[in-house]
Design goal:
Distance between the termini: 43 Å
Number of strands: 6
Shape: globular
Strand content: under 5%
Number of helices: 25
Largest sheet: 4 strands, parallel
Radius of gyration: 25 Å
Strand order of the largest sheet: 3-4-5-6
């Protein structure tokens, strides 16, 4: 008893860094943290330097953006899951601001972004963005990916590229009219570099192929320079270390003049800042929704993360970096790598800092063609992950939001599309809220205490119920709050698929979900059908009285058993169902 009290006091001294109880942090957890930090670095490094070069900046700017985001996460945040990087959707608008207003314009925009995200956090705007972000944010991602794809194809083929914030149709017209100017040497380089990356992407999943690709390119360049391979002549290819795009010293807040821009310039920068803030806030909200649903970590609070992201952006730009935001793909990978504390993020930051210290040597062996190939594959990956087909065949209103936003972006650009897409999303969300009834009289709060007990002391609960650890290694609990999102469920399903083994049981715990409309039932039906095909059993838990009646009614109308999964409101009964099913399968 005395020992536990002492450890309890020790734990309170290190809540932010360890994020776990000290006596539970084992050598195995330490190894997981170290390995997770190395893996996240391998995923993060190629994307950071590629997006920095896309914005016309030095790759050093990308490293600084990553290091500052990690520093803010370690100092101020209390979650070990969140991984931030350069905000992909804002790259086109950052380039435009830099060209029109230079670095001072970017810094003033970052200051406004910090203020706007602070207001969003204080007004709990993040709770609304959880339910409105998916369709219009997917549309912005697709538009930016198309713009990058077109511009980089021109670059690797040797065509003089226009600024990527120009009209996408204008870029495509330039590309078509310049096909005859492609040189044979550029075509050979394009095929060799891009072909290698395509082959690697078929072997390795996700961003890890980018890191291996850069490594192979650097080794090839090194061998060519020192004639280590006799059959390789010196490759006369420009590298990102030869004449870095911008001098880092110019991107420093302390070197800015004190002249205040005109009212017109400030007005334009405020518009840019508001559009950037909406996109980044949507990224934060969606990323937090995914993280809380998979990990059930209550420390992941959307409104707190909005404020921290605003601070991170101001610090990043002040140090010479770019706009940053939480990345869903990298955060999910961090969860998958089973990092136990913020130590994993610290290791990632340390490795980025080592690269920064030896930048002159390292970047001198990374070809610019390699960066263009990465940006093309990154754009293709973004378009594929957006799953455009779901907005073609579905009958929901999200497809109208998606296609309207994409078309406005293609014709009028990034800023008008962000405002139009968000307003349409907000209007659709408001109509759904009107249809939601007040189920407070039906709510059964006993489920919350049982689930909290399970989450806080999983293995203690298993021992109390005499459940073997092996059984619950096959179980995943997903916590759904408020209104279901098609992108949320689809991302969770893809996360499970990316793992080595798909869970045999998925418990969907409906916390604070007051009501499901027709659209939500369709999404739930689609999710259950997709997971059942992968051999998983879905169990619905935590439903209030009204919601339980509606689910059973919908199931009866469909004439299909368990179309929405097994409906078991009580968590203990759900555990019993899993035990019974497991015993039957073993027999």
């Amino acid at each position: 008893m005395f020992r536990s009290k002492i450890f309890g006091k020790r734990n309170e001294l290190f809540p932010a860094f360890f994020n776990v109880y000290v006596e539970r942090y084992s050598f195995f957890h330490l190894c997981n943290d170290i390995w997770a930090g190395i893996k996240i670095f391998a995923l993060l490094f190629p994307v950071l330097i590629s997006l920095a070069i896309l914005c016309g900046e030095s790759p050093i700017v990308g490293l600084i953006s990553g290091i500052t985001s990690i520093a803010i996460s370690v100092i101020l945040s209390n979650t070990r899951y969140q991984i931030s990087q350069i905000s992909f959707p804002t790259c086109v608008v950052v380039t435009e601001i830099m060209i029109k207003y230079q670095y001072k314009g970017v810094f003033i925009t970052a200051l406004f972004v910090c203020l706007i995200l602070y207001v969003f956090g204080k007004l709990n705007i993040g709770e609304v963005l959880k339910c409105t972000a998916s369709a219009f944010l997917s549309a912005i991602y697709v538009y930016v990916a198309i713009s990058i794809l077109v511009s980089q194809i021109q670059y690797i083929l040797g065509i003089s590229t226009p600024a990527i914030f120009n009209s996408t149709f204008a870029n495509i017209a330039i590309l078509c009219n310049s096909i005859r100017n492609i040189t044979v040497s550029n075509l050979q380089y394009a095929i060799s570099f891009f072909g290698l990356l395509v082959l690697l992407s078929l072997v390795f999943k996700g961003y890890i192929s980018f890191f291996i690709y850069i490594l192979l390119c650097a080794i090839t360049m090194l061998c060519s320079e020192f004639n280590l391979l006799p059959y390789l002549e010196y490759l006369n290819i420009k590298t990102i270390g030869i004449g870095l795009f911008n001098c880092l010293d110019s991107n420093n807040i302390f070197l800015l003049s004190y002249n205040i821009p005109s009212q017109t310039v400030l007005g334009n920068l405020v518009i840019f800042a508001f559009a950037i803030s909406l996109v980044i806030a949507s990224q934060v909200s969606f990323c937090i929704s995914i993280g809380t649903s998979i990990t059930l970590d209550k420390k992941l609070q959307t409104n707190k993360e909005l404020i921290l992201t605003g601070i991170s952006n101001l610090v990043s730009v002040s140090c010479g970096g770019l706009f940053i935001s939480p990345d869903t793909e990298l955060s999910i990978q961090n969860i998958h790598f089973k990092s136990k504390s913020l130590l994993s993020i610290l290791i990632t930051g340390l490795l980025l800092y080592i690269i920064l210290c030896y930048k002159d040597y390292i970047f001198n062996y990374i070809p610019t063609y390699a960066i263009s190939s990465i940006l093309i594959m990154l754009s293709v990956s973004v378009i594929r992950n957006a799953d455009i087909t779901q907005y073609m065949v579905s009958k929901n209103k999200e497809k109208y939001i998606f296609w309207t936003t994409v078309n406005i972006a293609l014709y009028f650009g990034f800023v008008p599309a962000v405002f139009a897409g968000f307003v349409l999303s907000l209007f659709t969300f408001s109509r759904r809220i009107i249809n939601i009834k007040n189920p407070s009289v039906y709510t059964n709060k006993d489920h919350d205490s049982i689930v909290r007990e399970f989450i806080s002391n999983k293995y203690g609960y298993l021992n109390t119920q005499k459940i073997s650890k092996e059984i619950f290694e096959q179980v995943e609990i997903i916590q759904i709050e408020n209104i279901l999102s098609i992108n949320l469920l689809e991302m969770i399903r893809k996360t499970f698929i990316s793992r080595d083994t798909f869970p045999k049981f998925i418990i969907l715990y409906f916390q604070n979900v007051p009501f499901l409309d027709g659209e939500a039932f369709r999404l739930l039906k689609k999710f259950v059908s997709a997971t059942n095909k992968l051999g998983s059993t879905v169990i619905l838990c935590g439903t209030n009285g009204l919601l339980l009646e509606l689910i059973k009614k919908k199931e009866k109308e469909s004439n299909v058993n368990n179309i929405f999964g097994y409906i078991i409101p009580n968590f203990s009964d759900a555990v019993s169902k899993i035990l019974k099913t497991t015993k039957l399968n073993q027999n």
